[in-house]
Write a structure and sequence with these properties.
This protein is an alpha+beta fold. Helix content is about 50%, strand content about 20%. Strand 3 and strand 4 form a beta hairpin.
Length: about 575
């Protein structure tokens, strides 16, 4: 038996191997789908909790630092140096300098009297200048001159100058009232802490591979305004706060893109800041994608091994059958004396060999009878010939009907792309012979993916049928309509210039916009129009220009016609 017959796609051994391998692969895929869903939910939960833990750690670190600086300023204002010594004396100035050196993020520390004049400072505003217009004096509820104030002020602010590397210097201000031994207000101790400590606090708690994994940290105020990082201010719009009991969310951000994100509140009195940690969806689920690929490769490898084993097992059963097939072929070729020796240890195959030997003897006996019967059959064939002619006519009609079905779209009933190509070719030949111009319209349903995603594919099919019906109603009798692919339609307008094509497209666009599609309501279309030109080599040039105009219509806002 030749190798080509053994490996023939219809052979028993190959079919059995493919069957078992396919069944195993199918069952493996079903199991993988269930496992994939379970792992996806679990990994999403774990990654969301990781982001929440990271956001909580950063928020706690920032809150602790704020509280520490807050308390430091309050305690410093209560030391004897600030309670008893002159506000502009050297002892107090030395204390300010020591405090500034002790915390490297202090950009400026100063003391004002009750009139708002700076008496001592480490730098920036000079002694004797007025501090009445500093941001921590503007807000009346925080003004240090109110007699019943008893706690430090904590505000965030953005200084307009100077700048470093294009980014304005930003500070977090801390202030505390200074009272003398009798409890009378002497002045205010105020500090500018550079915003850099916030940046370094965040950077120090993000993992080393934060950049590669797409992790980003943001700080947002109570008005949902971006505070940090600076490059995100005015460019990144944060989402609404998470609901109570929700530690993370997977969804789209207002500035675009799908992210897995979590947030935590900075626990500091009088401050309503949120720390948000986000990671792109693709990178958040990267481990799941790698595991999914590994499982698919493992299942494929196991299927191939199983197919090889089944193929070898099936070969042991199929070889005797191939021997019987060879004997039968030789007898069929005229070698009626060939032997029936089959090498097999299977009782069933030996019985089959004996049965075929007896069958051959019987067939040779009846061969002569068949010769006589053949003559009779020839007469019957002549009688049936006329019937076959009539049947052929009927089959020709059916073939014509099948050809029509092959050129129509099953969902919408419109012509399909193959029919459109044939019609365009005919119209192109007519244009080359007579110079009769034609135009092409390409139409596309706007945001059709949203219909399928939001309402299901059944609703999408209803929308396609609805638009197809409107095309039939709005197009002219001489126009050719086809569903070109997906949610895209083509109209061929014979004898029509560009202006006429635009009018037809606008009529169709308005009809679709004014209608109500089943299940989804109002839908719109975008259209591109083009006319065949003398320099065009084929109808493809006009179709391509119409398609380009369609893309311009979609890029220009959709629900419009471009030519």
């Amino acid at each position: 038996m030749s190798l080509s017959r053994i490996a023939w796609p219809g052979s028993f051994r190959l079919r059995l191997a493919v069957l078992f391998g396919g069944l195993f692969l199918f069952s493996a895929l079903l199991g993988a789908l269930g496992l994939d869903r379970m792992l996806s939910d679990r990994m999403l939960q774990d990654q969301g909790e990781t982001l929440h833990s990271l956001a909580s750690n950063i928020a706690k670190a920032i809150g602790d630092n704020l509280h520490e600086r807050h308390r430091e300023v309050i305690l410093l204002a209560q030391t004897p140096t600030y309670v008893r010594t002159p506000l502009d004396g050297p002892e107090l100035r030395q204390s300010l300098e020591r405090t500034k050196r002790a915390y490297r993020y202090y950009a400026w520390i100063g003391v004002t009297d009750t009139s708002g004049k700076i008496r001592s400072a480490t730098g920036g505003m000079l002694e004797g200048q007025s501090a009445a217009k500093r941001p921590w004096f503007i807000h009346g509820q925080h003004a240090p001159f109110i007699g019943d104030i008893h706690q430090a002020v904590l505000l965030s602010k953005l200084m307009k100058s100077p700048t470093t590397g294009g980014e304005p210097l930003r500070f977090v201000d801390f202030a505390s009232p200074i009272y003398d031994q009798a409890g009378k207000l002497r002045g205010v101790l105020a500090t500018h802490a550079l915003w850099d400590w916030v940046v370094e606090t965040i950077r120090g708690r993000l993992p080393d591979n934060a950049g590669q994994s797409g992790l980003q940290a943001f700080i947002v105020d109570a008005g949902n305004n971006m505070l940090s990082p600076f490059e995100a201010v005015g460019r990144v719009k944060p989402p609404a706060p998470l609901t109570a009991g929700q530690s993370f969310r997977l969804g789209a951000w207002p500035d675009g893109g799908d992210y897995l994100y979590s947030e935590a509140q900075i626990q500091e009195e009088g401050l309503s800041w949120r720390v948000i940690i986000r990671q792109p969806r693709q990178q958040a689920l990267a481990a799941l994608n790698q595991l999914r690929t590994a499982l698919m490769l493992l299942g494929l490898a196991a299927s191939l091994l199983l197919m090889a084993a089944v193929y070898r097992l099936a070969a042991a059963f199929s070889r005797p059958l191939e021997q019987l097939a060879g004997i039968a072929e030789r007898i069929g070729g005229g070698d009626e004396d060939t032997g029936w020796t089959v090498h097999t240890g299977t009782q069933e195959l030996r019985q089959l060999s004996e049965a075929m030997r007896n069958m051959t003897s019987t067939l040779l006996t009846r061969k002569r009878e068949l010769t006589d019967i053949n003559a009779s059959l020839e007469r019957m064939v002549e009688e049936r010939t006329e019937e076959l002619r009539e049947a052929n006519v009927s089959l020709a009609h059916k073939a014509t009907r099948l050809e029509q079905l092959a050129r129509s779209d099953a969902l919408t009933g419109l012509n399909n792309r193959m029919a459109a190509a044939e019609q365009l070719e005919r119209e192109q030949l007519r244009f080359q012979r007579s110079g009769a111009a034609y135009s092409v319209l390409m139409l596309d349903i706007d945001h059709f993916k949203r219909v399928n995603d939001g309402h299901g594919h059944d609703a999408g099919d209803q929308v396609l049928r609805h638009v197809a019906a409107l095309l039939r109603q709005s197009a002219r009798a001489t126009d050719f309509i086809a569903r070109y692919g997906g949610e895209e339609f083509l109209l061929l307008l014979p004898g029509t210039g560009l202006d006429g094509a635009v009018l037809v497209a606008e009529k169709i666009r308005a009809a679709v916009e004014a209608s109500e599609a089943p299940a989804v309501g109002r839908v719109t279309i975008s259209a591109g129009a083009a006319t065949i030109a003398d320099e065009d080599a084929s109808y493809d040039d006009a179709v391509r220009r119409a398609d380009q105009a369609l893309y311009r219509a979609k890029a220009g806002g959709r629900n419009r016609v471009e030519s």
